[in-house]
Each structure stands twice: as C-alpha cells, then as structure tokens.
Amino acid sequence: MSPAKKRARTYDPAKIRTAVFAQFGQVRRAVESLTADQLALPTRLGEWTVRDLAAHLTMTVAAVSRALEREEPAKADIALLDYPAVTAPFARAIADGTRQLAAAHPDLDALYARTEDELTAHLAAAPETRLLDIRAGGMTLTDYLVTRTVELVVHTDDLNAAVPGLDIPLDRQALAACTRLLADALAAKAPGGATEVRIPPYAVVQCVEGPRHTRGTPPNVVETDPLTWIRLATGRLTWAEALGQAKVSASGERADLSGLLPLMA
Fold it and tell me: Do 127 and 229 fall within a single domain?
C-alpha cells in the first residue's frame, strides 16, 4: 500500500459538498462586484488576468458536473493524496481551456449562475458512493470534491492578491479541507516521524525520515498559519520568503522543508 493510501483521512461528504458551494458562492458574489478595470488587472499566475482567473474558477467547479455526465469508471485508482501530482501533466491544457472559456463568456455573472445551477442539479442526483472519471483515472466523488476545495481556496487567495481591497472570505470548512489535504500530501511525499508540522487549528502531521519522537516537545517543529501553508504548498510563497517575513517558525536540524516544497503549482 502506498504512503498516500496509508495516510489518507476521511472527509464528511455532506460537509464537503456544503464547503464547495459556500466558497463558490463567496467567489460568485465578489466577481459580480468587479469592474471592467478590475477584471483586466494582472494576477500572479503568469499571463492570466483577473477575468481569466474568474473564468477558471467556474471551470474547476464545472469539472464535477462534466465528470458526473461521463460513464462511471470500474474502480477508483487515484487516491486523494495523488491529486497534487496528477494535475501537473494537464497544466497547459487547463491554461488553454481557461483562456478560451474567458473569451467565450464575456458575461461572467451568467457563467457563474449556470455553473452553480448545473452543479446543484448533478449533485442532487449523485450518491456519495459515485465514482468519477476525471480523465487521469477514477476517483470517488467525495475525494474529488475535496480537491475542489483546494482549487477554490487557492484561487480565492489569488483573486484577493490581484485586486486591492477585494478580501473574499474563506469558508472555514473549505479552508480546513484544503489545509489538511496539502499537509497530508507533505507527509505522503516525505514519510517519517522526525519532523512535526503544525498548522493550527486544522492540521498536525509528522514527516521526514529520522528518529521518531514519541514524548514531550518534538526536536524538529515547523509551525505556520493555514494561508501561509497553502501558499508554501502551492508555490505562491517560498520557504525563504516565509522565514524572512516571520510567517513560519522552524526549529531543529530537520525542520527545513525547502527541498519538499512546493507540493503543487
């Protein structure tokens, strides 16, 4: 059994569905308020504008509906913690699709409304046990929805960074799921018990090969807040930058995570 499968935690299907809708709703309301000048602003995602990013967020949610329209695969062969790795080969296709979607839908309000309506209808008819064909393989519906919380939280933060004063709220359950998945992905990438990574209030994981700590204060400890962790795990912030800005504390000879990050970009 792979480290990812050993370490995978379970998520409440109802809470994850609620989290996806809640965060998508937060983004939808914010996008409705953006002016043409704000939509034309650059983002930290290469050549993408705010309009491109806003369109991309609908695509990440619509992917659930599209997967539910496809035939159910025979088995789920993609574990949840495989997600950070399996997305990389599709980066160019996703970028091209995003730009095409943004160009084809000048009315973002209508696009968001249609996306939400379709997801509502598809999920209402989908049992928790449903398997999805997500092109890279088979995945359970709940696991795929957890990955949608990652996409929504990460790109909500991208929107907030691009538009001064925007400050879209992050749904607590979506933020928790995103934080936990990326923390577990680190533990799967570097299995071990030498270093404890703390991301209060959502996650604590042990990772990195070396002497396993069992009692008292661990000799190697990394601690940071959820958003800083998410930015580190997705390449929005470097380890050196986080240390320099005092956004992460790291003590012990095995507390340097720079060689393990980012987990996905």
Answer: no
220 is a domain residue = yes
Number of domains making up the chain: 2
Give the 3-state DSSP-derived string for the chain, with helices as H, strands as E and coil as C: CCHHHHHCCCCCHHHHHHHHHHHHHHHHHHHHCCCHHHHCCECCCCCCEHHHHHHHHHHHHHHHHHHHHCCCCCCCCCCHHHHHHHCHHHHHHHHHHHHHHHHHCCCHHHHHHHHHHHHHHHHHCCCCCCEEECCCCEEEHHHHHHHHHHHHHHHHHHHHHHCCCCCCCCCHHHHHHHHHHHHHHHHHHCCCCCEEEEECCCEEEEECCCCCCCCCCCCCEEEECHHHHHHHHCCCCCHHHHHHCCCEEEECCCCCCHHHCCCCC
- The answer to whether residues 124 and 29 belong to one domain is yes
> Which residues form the domain of 65?
3-175
Average pLDDT over residues 109-116: 98
Residue-wise pLDDT for 52-87, tens only, equals 999 999 999 999 999 999 999 999 999 999 988 888
This prediction has a pTM of 0.94
